[in-house]
Amino acid sequence: MPRLPMRSLLGLTALTNLAAADTDYTQYVNPFMGTTNGGNRFPGVVAAPFAMVKLGPDVQSGTTDAYSGYLASGNVWGFSLTHESGTGGAPKYGVVSQMPVVGTVPNPLADLSQPRASADVATIGYYKTSLANGITVELAASEHAGLYQYIFPNNTTPNIVVDVSHVLPSFRGLGWEQHYSGGSISTFDDGHYEGSGTYNNGWNLSPNWNIYFCGKFEQKVSTVKTFRGTGTNLTSYGKGGTVSGTDRLGAVFTFEDATITSRVGISFISTTRACANLDAEIPSKTKLQALVTQAKSRWNTQVFSKIRIGPGANNADLQLLYSSLLGMFTIPSNKTSENPKWQSAEPYYDDVFTLWDTHRCHTSLFHVLEPVAHEEFIRSLIDIWRHDGFMPDARSSNFNGRVQGGSNADNVLADAYVKGVRGNVNWEDGFAAMRTDAEVVPPNNFDPKAPDSSTKEGRGALPDWIKYGYITPAFTRAVSRAVEYSTNDFGLYQVAKGLGKTADEQKYLKRSRNWRNHWNPNATSNGHSGFVVPRLANGSFVPQDPLSCGGCYWGDAYYEDNPWVYSLNALHDIGTLKKLSGGDAKFVDRIDKLFDLKIFNAGNEPSFLSPYLYNFVNGQQWRSVQRSRNNVGNLYNAGASGLPGNSDAGAMEANILWQMIGLYPMTGQTTFLILSPWFPQMTIDLGNGKTLVITTTGGDKNTAPYVQSLKVNGKQWYKSWVTWEDIFANGGTMDFVLGSTTMGWDTGELPPAPASGD
Ligand SMILES: *[C@@H]1O[C@H](CO)[C@@H](O)[C@H](O)[C@H]1NC(C)=O
Ligand SMILES: *[C@@H]1O[C@H](CO)[C@@H](O)[C@H](O)[C@H]1NC(C)=O
Ligand SMILES: *[C@@H]1O[C@H](CO)[C@@H](O)[C@H](O)[C@H]1NC(C)=O
Ligand SMILES: *[C@@H]1O[C@H](CO)[C@@H](O)[C@H](O)[C@H]1NC(C)=O
Ligand SMILES: *[C@@H]1O[C@H](CO)[C@@H](O)[C@H](O)[C@H]1NC(C)=O
Known about the structure:
A hairpin with a 5-residue loop joins strand 24 (663-665) and strand 25. Among the domains are: 42-300, Beta-galactosidase, Chain A, domain 5; 461-485 and 502-582, Glycosyl hydrolase family fold (Up-down Bundle), CATH 1.20.1610.10. The protein starts with 11 loop residues before the first helix and ends in a 19-residue tail after the last strand. It is α+β, with helices and mostly antiparallel strands and 758 residues long. 26% of the residues lie in helices and 23% in strands. The strands form seven sheets. A nine-stranded antiparallel sheet has the order 4-5-6-7-16-11-10-9-14. It has a seven-stranded antiparallel sheet with strand order 1-2-3-8-15-12-13, with no helix packed on it. The longest helix has 21 residues, at 478-498. The chain is globular and about 80 Å long. The structure holds 2-acetamido-2-deoxy-beta-D-glucopyranose (5 copies). One 2-acetamido-2-deoxy-beta-D-glucopyranose (NAG) binds at residues 151, 153-154. Residues 274-739 form the Glycosyl hydrolase family domain. One of its GO terms (molecular function) is peptide-N4-(N-acetyl-beta-glucosaminyl)asparagine amidase activity. Residues 1-21 form the signal peptide. This is Alpha-1,2-mannosidase family protein.
């Protein structure tokens, strides 16, 4: 916990600031959190939040997909500078690599992989792998460059192999594997090398994209040989110089020293820029430790110190808190000034993986903790629309894709708008970008998984949405898309209202209610009637078991979850949902059934909000607390297997962080549902000197989590919710009395259900 300086006689504010600056929060961070058990988080070096370079090992283990490059067991076959974090689907990136090899290298195209001698070691800004052949590899980085430090066994010949064709493979057979399509490398007399690689496909079905690199060694290169070939067949292997083309190709650097330090810069624009990035950020003779110190300082200042915990917290909770914050801001990547597609004064962020995952609760915490980056991110989404035609739902290698449900950038923009994000955001353009999603059918990209309409961007099923007010089975994922399109249109309503566009305001509010058109009151399951189901063009509902979603995938009526879950997902229209469900008691029982029937999946985003909808019934908030603790909070820890599902670019981590804070956001609205905070005292730095201070007394995370009473900004509080204005806009306080007894303290006005008129 934060170490309070003993120098007193400074004002309280000064004390708090000193405490923040003095505390090294990185001591609580486990970079391996969520790396196994399907979490797929990236444990390697990320020198600052949103850094473009993510330097770490690439591991192979049979036909297991290594989504972030890393696997806990298996052979290391390179250390590359680009990775995603926490994604599913298929691996992306893992390009621009080096691999150290001992002895002679008869064939650099052969399998050069090595088992580890021991488990990898990582702290913020630092990574170490010990290979079975005696080589130790240590890594550090800056935002656009990496530093490799190799120690070879004595009395061996050290080599570094640079294989331009190195890219993370996928073995799933879904057509989402990446391909190397060519490259070039040039070696120079001073021992440095430059070049580029071209790759395509991956989960977002990207066309060819290029990356440029510039590598230098601190030690003298004794010999260099370039190579090329096909598969593992060498067709040339000779002196340095330039090789290029569509073959596999690269270079082998051989040294006399046993300790080799290499610095490698990357760029999406040119080799010149890759070298400039390198020399600006990691000049010659930079010490690895200096980069590590810099990385720790960046993460402490920019991220970790934003949430400060008072005395009385246990270490495991602090580790979960700060390790989750690392996972939240590892991606997207800030590629401002590294956009190869257009020139613009706007910021540019890539590796959005995906808004389908992150809009539900990452978006609002991103805004609270990193308002500067969040505004840049919003501007970047709008600038992508300006130049690529649509905002992304997902994006990597500078290419939009894929869209799983709705156009959720609409929800992200609406959330920012209603919470007063203005700054340098051009909101007329922002609304125009949202309107494109709502009115323009994106060109079909003929995705083999869903050939009916675009999976690249926008709303592929828009023709039905506009014509019928629902989506027929002519379109895949018809029902889950319809529910999401409703929330997207609610986002347009919110922004149109703010901008004074009255006609659009009315239009999109009406459209946001269209999820109701999929509601079949006669669909029944486990004592409940009324579920969202498929609907034909002639208006008939299709018979549907509410417990089943068929294959739950790209070609089915529901994506990744079933009718029970999607029926609770129109979060802007909960008043109607309660009515359609049969009133308060039935509604409470419906949420209970998610758990009784084991439908609830804490590891999948469409389930995220459901456990807290009890707050929409007076006196039932304690049930949300119970779920928060027993069905969500207890599934997480800071260990390697500590995430209940894919990190999904930090969506899963944001979910646990909100539980710890004791609030849950309703994206696109200013409402936060009240849960139960984990810590005796938490101070959230909101920027510009504003703070939100949340205290609890009488609580115990496991045995006494229930709210007995609450004061907000010093006033007794009876509502199960607060607004952005109450506690975030200008800061505020929330003082909870917690206990082991369930209490119906929440007798006040219910949370808003802004679309629940007719
Ligand atoms: C190599 O030899 C040097 C000098 O004896 C020694 O300091 C170093 O630890 C040895 N390195 C390894 C990896 O054994
Ligand atoms: C490598 O060369 C051998 C012999 O010419 C040939 O049979 C084999 O198909 C080649 N493999 C690849 C991957 O090109
Ligand atoms: C993003 O990158 C640009 C260019 O390097 C930089 O000016 C900006 O401050 C970065 N944003 C954040 C939030 O670090
Ligand atoms: C539901 O069933 C009742 C009774 O069979 C029927 O009258 C009604 O039309 C049905 N409603 C719908 C929407 O199918
Ligand atoms: C709609 O079409 C389906 C399938 O052709 C048919 O079974 C159903 O009876 C039709 N409903 C109406 C109201 O015409």
